[in-house]
């Protein structure tokens, strides 16, 4: 399910990037303003993230789609080490296969220089600015996930909050850092395109930013426990992370636990 989740995210990224940025695309020709096209790309990927998070498979796995997210919940003790290992493997494999399938289906329209496998590359501001941007976007995303998902009145809005941030980050930060906040997402494009330049940024900044969010969250809410590792925790689905089982008479929804 985690492989499918990031694979679908990457296929969506490839399809929308090709539609918006390939010179032969009628959408590209109809929208000459690159800022508007970038905002539409952000909207498309934000909605894609929301759809995956609230999908049956996303609700079952927790829809991490990102090794940095999984490692953060591992640090919090909400994911078993064995599960975390295979989640991360699945994310890398699924993302890479998603890009490979998109390249097979779209060919030069996707692999050409205008779309270029949707690789993430630092902008003209340089490597340092790209690193800092990726760090703080990752920190803000994880802090938002932790805060919203562990507040009873807003827990079911976590996926919407995450999708809104993804859309905003792409719109504002893609020209600065490429907007990855996900090692497996960057790897997926790099391994298919053989473009590995500056990949260290995308393997370090997102992980560091999300792990830093844990310390900030604990300081801001010292008496508030993290409930579970899922971005959406519906009542009707079993959870491998917190042990919730709707078929057990004594089961208590993790979101209603103290």
Keywords:
258 residues; mainly alpha; 11 helices; 64% helix; 0% strand
Q: How would you sum up this structure, described in words?
A:
The radius of gyration is 18 Å and the shape is globular. It has helices at residues 2-21, 26-30, 34-53, 56-61, 67-75, 81-106, 108-111, 127-149, 158-177, 183-193, 199-220. It starts with a helix and ends in a 38-residue tail after the last helix. Residues 254-258 have low confidence and may be disordered. By secondary structure, it is mostly helical.
Backbone CA Rg: 18 Å
User: SSE string, helix = H, strand = E?
Assistant: HHHHHHHHHHH
Structural class: mainly alpha
Main sheet, how many strands, which sense, barrel? none
Distance between the termini: 29 Å
Query: Which regions contain 5 or more consecutive residues with pLDDT less than 50?
Result: 254-258
Task: Give the fraction of residues assigned to helices.
Answer: 55-70%
Counted beta strands: 0
Overall pLDDT: 94
Percentage beta strand: under 5%
CA-based shape: globular
Total DSSP helices: 11
In short:
The protein is an all-alpha fold and 258 residues long. It has helices at 2-21, 26-30, 34-53, 56-61, 67-75, 81-106, 108-111, 127-149, 158-177, 183-193, 199-220. Helix 1 (2-21) runs antiparallel to helix 3 (34-53), helix 8 packs antiparallel against helix 9 and helix 10 packs antiparallel against helix 11.
Could you give the topology of this structure?
Elements: H1 2-21, H2 26-30, H3 34-53, H4 56-61, H5 67-75, H6 81-106, H7 108-111, H8 127-149, H9 158-177, H10 183-193, H11 199-220
Helix pairs in contact: 1-3, 1-6, 3-9, 5-6, 5-11, 6-10, 8-9, 8-11, 10-11
């Amino acid at each position: 399910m985690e492989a499918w989740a990031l694979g679908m995210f990457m296929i969506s990224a490839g399809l929308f990037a090709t539609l918006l940025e390939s010179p032969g695309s009628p959408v590209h020709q109809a929208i000459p303003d690159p800022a508007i096209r970038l905002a539409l790309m952000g909207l498309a990927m934000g909605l894609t993230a929301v759809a995956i998070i609230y999908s049956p498979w996303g609700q079952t796995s927790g829809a991490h789609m990102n090794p940095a997210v999984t490692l953060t919940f591992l640090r919090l003790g909400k994911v078993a080490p064995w599960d975390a290992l295979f989640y991360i493997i699945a994310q890398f494999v699924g993302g890479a296969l998603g890009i490979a399938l998109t390249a097979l289906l779209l060919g030069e329209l996707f692999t050409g220089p205008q779309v270029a496998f949707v690789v993430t590359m630092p902008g003209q501001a340089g490597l340092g600015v790209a690193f800092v941007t990726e760090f703080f976007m990752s920190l803000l995303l994880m802090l938002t996930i932790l805060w919203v998902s562990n507040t009873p009145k807003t827990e079911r809005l976590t996926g919407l909050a995450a999708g809104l941030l993804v859309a905003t980050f792409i719109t504002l930060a893609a020209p600065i850092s490429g907007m990855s906040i996900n090692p497996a997402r960057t790897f997926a494009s790099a391994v298919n395109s053989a473009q590995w330049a500056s990949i260290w940024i995308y393997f370090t900044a997102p992980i560091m930013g999300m792990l830093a969010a844990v310390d900030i969250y604990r300081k801001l809410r010292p008496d508030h426990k993290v409930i579970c590792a899922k971005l959406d925790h519906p009542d009707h689905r079993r959870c491998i992370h917190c042990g919730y089982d709707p078929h057990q008479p004594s089961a208590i929804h993790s979101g209603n636990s103290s």
